[in-house]
Amino acid sequence: MHKEKNCLLLCRKKLSRGMVVLFVSLLVIDTAIVSQWFGLEKVVERIEQTSMERETRPNVSEVTLTAIGDYSLTGSGAGSFYTTLPFYHDGSWKGFYDLAHNDFLQSPWSLASRFSWCW
Asked: What is the CA radius of gyration of the chain?
């Protein structure tokens, strides 16, 4: 309850000029670090090569939603995503997923829906 109040107060406030400058400077600094570390051209190229036709995470997300209903009372257990996912595999993707790549889906599956709000 206390966290929700803080979030509401923070979200209601207008961003000051200093906060905007802070966020913009963080974005510029992060971009500079990524471009130095990986090479900005490689990052841009990788983003351009990404396509929804080859992306399989949406398929895994749909299966995860189905499984949440099956484990809504007890959860499958923390860290058990990679062992329980194969039971729901419908053949719509290839490869191995050890994580859902979406905490909002993985937490209710692993920890039970009633406890996932703590995450």
From this structure: 19
CA separation for the pair 63, 45 (Å, rounded): 30
Model-wide pTM > 0.85: no
SS3 25: helix
Asked whether the beta carbons of 119 and 81 are under 8 A apart, the reply is no
* 82 within 8 A of 107, measured Cβ to Cβ: no
- pLDDT the model gives residue 52: 67
Q: How many residues does the chain have?
A: 119
Q: Which residue has the tokens 């963080």?
A: 26
**Mean pLDDT across the chain:** 77
pLDDT of residue 26: 92
End-to-end Cα distance, the chain: 14
